[in-house]
Amino acid sequence: MSARHWSSELEALDACEEAVEFAREYPSLRAAWTACERPDWMLWLLAKSLPDDPTTTARRKFAGCVNAIAKRSLKHAGKYRKQIEPTIRAVDRWARNDPRMTLELLSAARSAALSSDDAAWSAEKKAQCRIIRKHYPAPRIPKP
User: Fold this and answer.
1) Are residues 74 and 128 in the same domain?
2) Which of 64, 65, 79, 93 is buried most deeply by CB count within 10 Å?
3) Is residue 111 in a domain?
4) For residue 2, is it within any domain?
5) Is the pTM of this model over 0.85?
């Protein structure tokens, strides 16, 4: 009987079929992580391993990583930049554990940015993946 491929753990987490197929091409999570050019997949996997409590150090680190991507995407925000920048500043404060940044303030900043449109999400997938890898060089698959 052969050992199961590590990608079966992704299936157990209900990863999309395309991501599982991609994973099957690599002998390990580390190899797939290094080759991945889909920031959405990378962030999805990281989010699966985070605790529910948004005030934990792990969740704040994740917020910092996502915020680094958002900062890079600002150049594509056009007329929405002024609406998005306050949210980026708020998330920066949140990620640094600034005691003045409450969940309520963070939520209000997020709502303001979401109303501006999805213009800040950039097509610079490779660069975004590098940012994610900088923050998370060695991911792990959480137990379902």
Assistant:
1) yes
2) 65
3) yes
4) yes
5) no
